[in-house]
Amino acid sequence: MKQIIILFTLLFVNINLQAQSLRALELNDNWLKEIKDKAPEKLSFPSSQKHKVLVFSLHTGFNHWVIPFAEATMKTLVDKTGGFEMTYTKDISLLSKKNLKQYDALILNNNCSIGDKRDMFWDVFKTDSSINSLKASKKAAKYEKGLLKYVKKGGGLMTLHGGIVMQNKSAEFSEMMGGSFEYHPKQQEIEVKLVDASHPLVKAFDGKGFTHMDEPYIFDKAYTKKNFKPLLYFEASEIKGLRNPDGDAIRYVSWIKTYGKGRVFYSSPSHNAQSFSNPKLLQFFLDGLQFVVGDVDCDVSPIGTL
Q1: 256: CB partners within 8 A, 6+ apart
Q2: pLDDT tens digits, residue range 234-243?
């Protein structure tokens, strides 16, 4: 009897895991060729400038398997269309106030932090044996302040999926980002819809949303202020596993906003590399990158709370 219970338990766990995840792909030449073939041929918003962009892909918490795929996708997009000079790194020292000054924009690629603080700078600096915990804490605070100041003074910030968790308990980071990660129900098929089909940053979707497997991220803190211009959303009634299904009927998953003189673009899609096979989503990411570097003139007025 005990063996039967164990067997059914393992079977349940296995089914549950399969329901929450897609098979990890291999980052090989075939996959790269597929993305290149589906990537846009040119920029949507012609620009005479060549923008310098830093792509930061370090994680200290949950390791999204999509991280190298997201990095490779951004590289493929800009290599094919031009207009950008990219630097790719996991070295957190490159996020120093002094170093960030040379870049027009920063891309946060699924930078999940860990522990009670949910502070990636602390996660890294606390392991530095040359400084004590007090100095590590001060250094972490200094780096976060530098990042906030970089955007406030005009730097662009593009954040992909779990990148919003980087400084997840920081009220200032949340204000800049437009929200903080709260939780997500199990991975499931999501109908992503357009808030305003006429907005230039969603024209890639030809007036229609799209369906894909993803984690339906739910947000808190600044998200309750809705201090952003939403681009994409899903309907709460269509999502299984919401803790508060009686909350907002519409849950936004991508938006743009300003922070001081800087521009911010956030996209929760996508947790899986399979979503990059959607050429419209590739165009959306490229257009989002152009937005944060200032190539796109569009409405960024926040909707605020109603």
Answers
A1: 201, 228, 229, 231, 263, 264, 265, 266, 288, 291, 298, 300
A2: 999 999 999 9
